[in-house]
Amino acid sequence: MKLLLDENVPRPMAEIVRILLKAHEVVHVHELKGWTGTKDIELYAKAKADGFEVVITNDTKQLSRPLEVAAIARSGLHRIEYRQNNKHGGLVGLGTAIATVCAALPHALSELEAAGGQRLVSLTSIDPTRQKRLQITDPAVVPPKHWPGGDSAAES
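Given the sequence above, the corresponding structure tokens read:
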């Protein structure tokens, strides 16, 4: 499939998605001469005319704007949206966006390839909060099995 990453998708996302999806053509709007700054209403028709099948965006308000909804519907293109939580900026925000897209995009594309018509896909965000992303253990307090000096060491 030929995928277009919308202007609001971070540029590093394109290279990572290309690495993961070698069987697909992945292009970022910024890589196409004259496409930067194209309004969404025109973008979908332009993408369709250029042979794209999917537009990936993090513009979650598109589907609440009647003119943009009409443009998406007219294009017949699949639309994949992911949420990039603004409260997590910088590296955490970028990492969360990349993780969300990379974890779900292969499944979404598989579904789209089998679909009998246009689909609108919303990817579920990965929770970047500390409690959801990592666990830290002090081995002096809670030693893992076979930790030297821990009770479990006597079992060996």
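The first helix runs from residue 11 to 20. Try to locate this feature in the token string yourself.
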